[in-house]
Amino acid sequence: MITIVIVLFFQIVIAEPIKFVLISIDYACWPGKMPNFKPCKPDDDENYNRLDFLKQRLKSLRVQMLITERYRDVTLNEKYKSITQDLFVYGRCLIVLSCLVLVTRDELLYHNTEALQILFMENHTDYIGLGTIVHLNQLLDFVESSLVSAFDFGSDEGGANYWIHSEGTKMLGVVRLRQLRLINEKFGWGKPEFSNVKYMPDWELPYRRLHYTDKYWRIYDPWLPISDSFDFTDAILMNFEHVGQFQNYPELKGYVTMLARSKQNSMKILDFLSEYHWLTFNTSAVFLDFTLYNVDANIFSVCTLRVEQTPFGSAIPDIDCDSVKLIEELEQLPYMDIIVLIIYIVVVLQFTQSFICTVWYEPSKMKSIWYKMDLIIIVLNILVMILIAVRATLVQGMLKRLEGANKLEYLNFRAPSRLHSLTTILIGFLICLMTLRVWKILQFSKVFQLFTQTFALAWKALAITMIMILIILMAFGIAFATINGNNSAHFIRLLTSIITALCFSFGFSSEIKPQEVFHGGEFFGMFMYASLGFVVSVLLINFFIITISEFFSTARAERDAKTKRRISFFEFLRVEYNDFISFFLKLSCFRKGYKRNNRTVAENIERIVEHRIAQDIERKAELRKKRSILSASTQKPPPPKDEETLQAEYRERIEHILAISSIMKTQIEILKHLLFSNKSMKKQKSSKNDDDNPYLDDDLNMDEDEESDDQTTEQKDNTKKDENEV
Predict the structure, then answer these.
(1) Which residues have CB under 8 Å from 304's CB, separation 6+?
(2) CA dist 64 to 72, 88, 527, 649, 657, Å?
(3) Residue 324, beta-bridge partner list
């Protein structure tokens, strides 16, 4: 399948434009004689007669009856036709992309992440949870309990090592311990500086390099900076900062040590670190990185456990688990996923071909923002495919390293995990851009036109109102952070305080307790909360809605003036695809049969006419009632139609009557032709039988009579068929 996709992509995107360029250069430089094309001659149809012409004319008159004066706006029809094509192209891409996201979504990833957070954060019988750590000295006990002993369960009984909480989950490589150390014990608004100096054991200086460092167990690694070991891939993909609860921590700094695969060797490493005081008062944060793989669910769990040490000596634990599927073989995918994937690739190639052809013949369209958006969509699709290929290459390389990994090798599966997250984000942007592109196409609807025109008219007023709301929210956020920031985690930072104030003003208080705003006093907290709710959620939001409402009325008046006596998009589709719609309407499931209900045709017509007259009387009574209500109230009645509209409706009625008259004349002519042609044929056959030779054999006469009878019955069947069509 990959080979087929590559060949199709090369042929459609690269080979076809090159071929047309070469052909155009050939014809431009060496123009030759064009081949003599013979004009197409219509086939001589001997059976084509007056009756066939009348039938064809009847069909054209029926279609012509639909095309009234409003349907003859060529500019509008061309616009609607282009909208139909764009809606088919972009709507199809959006639907297929959404289906691809839905079929590739796995609910097991959420449950796996939630289970890992519970297993590592809480206590379980003999195993310590990370949430119980209140001091940094307890971290090595947690590592021994939950990351060494828990993954070595069963080895004492002679069985294979497995995780006590899940036998199907294995650890890939070893656990990596990384700590960040501050150069100076200084905390404040400035960004902290982390140490990057080489140390001897027990953090002693000066540093010395011994000749047996690389040959035996790396006892000097815990005191060497990580900057000497990361490669180019890590510098690109892992160059980010962890957002902690106390401060932010860079990923490519600190001092690293690794545990072993066996429990005995891991305990020796932990004892060595404890003996030489690897964790001290100068440690700012410790990260525990490892990767788990669930064989049954084919899920990689990239885990990062973080413990932050505050200047007050306490520890703040946190868990970050990312569950991803990094191994997806095509043979193991369900048939539905394969079908949707193939359809998506074909749709993307068609979309790319359509864009290239349009820009090739009309380069001026690239000045439009919408075609630039199309180019961004194509680039994002190509980038997603490249990232998937790079991620698969990284995973395959790591799996090969895993086959021959030693006891002290850490496999960094966080790089392909970050590529997977980036791919997911790009797919989200793709859906967003496709939705915006479909929004532009949906401008044929009056509702979408009204929204667009309203935003175009009111953008200055809306921007000013939004700025007012943001200023007031910032003022309340700063006030809440100043008063309650030392006692509540929701107001500890300025941005968090602003978001909390916004949520609190709109009633989203499921995670926030009212007591959190009472640290400056209950009465003062109630006053601040009431002021916030009244000013933001009542005053400014109502002002925002009133502004929008005024511009809505203005935009509606402008839209009605522009779209006066204009057909809608669905009316255009009804006429443009009349044959397609008529085909479905002729099906038996949509066709309404005539039911007599034990009455004659005249009685049924009389009942229908009486029912219609009664409906008209009721409708007129309702209109009189509504007019009386409108006249009694302050509302104004709807304005009467102007002279131009009345004249247009009058012309449409005349066209409709003339079209019906032409159709009826054509039908009558067809009936006359059928009746008179049948009589003339009968006379010709009777005269022919009278003039026959009486001296022929009786058997021959009998054969001729049978043949004439067969022809007569066949002619009768054709006549009945024509009458039924009429």
Answers:
(1) 242, 287, 288, 289, 319, 320, 321, 414
(2) 11, 27, 72, 17, 12
(3) 300
Enter the tokens of residue 445: 């609807």
CA pair distance 100, 421, nearest whole angstrom:
16
Check whether 37 has a pLDDT greater than 80: no
Residue 124: per-residue pLDDT: 85
pTM surpassing 0.85?
no
Q: Is the peptide bond before 317 cis (omega within 30 degrees of 0)?
A: no
Q: Could you report the per-residue pLDDT of 477-509, keeping only the tens digit for each?
A: 888 888 888 888 888 888 888 888 877 777 776
CA gap 462, 543 in Å, rounded: 10
Task: State how far the Cα of 250 lies from the Cα of 180, in Å rounded to an integer.
Answer: 9
Six token digits for residue 632: 């009694």
| Sheet-wide strand order for 169-181 | 255-258, 169-181, 283-294, 299-309, 315-324
Name the token pair of 282.
Answer: 């100068």
- The residue to which tokens 């998009």 are assigned: 569
Q: What is the DSSP letter of 166?
A: B
Name the pairing type of β-strands 248-250 and 255-258.
unpaired
* Contact criterion met (CB below 8 Å) for 168 and 311: no
Q: Could you report how far apart the first and last alpha carbons of the chain are, in Å?
A: 54
Residue 46, classified by CB atoms within 10 Å of its CB into exposed (0-12), middle (13-18) or buried (19+), is exposed
Q: Which of 221-225, 457-461, 606-610 has the lowest mean pLDDT?
A: 457-461
Q: Looking at residue 143, what is its pLDDT?
A: 92
Question: Does residue 212 carry a pLDDT above 70?
Answer: no
* Confidence (pLDDT) at 161: 66
Q: Of 42-46, 211-215, 508-512, 542-546, which range is least confident?
A: 42-46
Mapped onto helix, strand or coil, the DSSP state of residue 551 is helix
Question: Which amino acid is residue 166, in one-letter code?
Answer: S
Per-residue burial over 550-583, b = 16 or more CB atoms within 10 Å of its CB, e = otherwise: ebbeebeeebeeeeeeebebeebeeeeeeeeeee
Compute the C-alpha angle 364/366/368, nearest 5°.
100
Residue 171 has φ and ψ, to the nearest 5°, of -95, 130
Q: How confident is the model at residue 33 (pLDDT cuts 50, 70, 90)?
A: low
CA angle 208, 213, 215 (to 5 degrees): 160
Helix (H) or strand (E) holding 194: none
Q: Please, is 215 exposed, middle or buried when counting C-beta atoms within 10 Å of its C-beta (0-12, 13-18, 19+)? A: exposed
- pLDDT in the model for residue 689: 56
pLDDT-derived band at 142 (thresholds 50, 70, 90) equals very high
**Residue 444 token pair:** 């044929």
Separation CA 282–CA 264 (nearest Å): 29
* Cα(196)–Cα(123) distance, integer angstroms: 35
Please tell me what DSSP assigns to residue 163: B
pLDDT, position 706 = 43
Report yes or no: 422 and 394 within 8 Å, Cβ to Cβ: no
Q: What is the pLDDT of residue 711?
A: 46
Please report which residue ranges of 485-536 form alpha helices under DSSP H.
494-505, 522-532
302: confidence class by pLDDT, cuts 50, 70, 90: very high
For 20-64, the three-class secondary structure string (H helix, E strand, C coil) is HHHHHHHHHHCCCCCCCCCCCCCCCCCCCCHHHHHHHHHHHHHHH
With beta carbons less than 8 A apart as the criterion, state whether 528 and 479 touch. Answer: yes
